[in-house]
Amino acid sequence: MSPEVPAAPRAPATGTSGELAGCFVSLEGGDGAGKTTQRDLLGTWLSAAGHDVVLTREPGGTDLGRVLRDAVLHGDDLDPRTEALLYATDRAHHVHHLVRPALAGGAVVVTDRYLDSSIAYQGAARELGDGEIRDLNLWATEGLLPDLTVLLDLDPATGAARRSHAPDRLERESIEFHIHVREHFLALARAEPERFLVVDAAASPEEVHAAVRDRLLPLLPAGGSR
Questions:
Q1: Which of 1, 13, 44, 149 is deepest in the core (most CB within 10 A)?
Q2: Is 29 assigned a ligand-binding role in the annotation?
């Protein structure tokens, strides 16, 4: 039986475009950490409680995003700045066409990756600068940050061992690269503990889901059924 999700009211999320009635959740972490699994578990749980739910991902949450995803993950090798700009382009389009309209309508939007991935991968591991990549993506999204960012923390070697598909461009990077990404994700979480929840992704999917549920409950918009 799915756990009950009370429809507790909360203050609306805000951004530069004004008040947004919904709730925005991002799932972050290294490859193989279980982000897609947790996104889908959240979708099932929230939908069962009567919430309007939008499950999405970056890159690739829109038609244009799917073209950009193929280019950035499966196309020719890219220099770091081009890579960063392609991710920011996808994010700007994703937020404008999908995320903000859904939040304005009161939906719970759950995305597999958001701007913290760019800060960790391109800003830190690609050495383009944490502040520069953050500023670029805040500009692209008009300052929209998630109400909750769940960092699924996992040793990169464990994540690679979970892989069941051919690695993409970023997955093919060295273990040192992925260790740097992990360390920077944890640094971001330490800097913004009010927004981040760090969960041990080596735990079972059910244990991870329970921890995410507990943190998310007070943030949910009114409107779900019991």
A1: 149
A2: yes
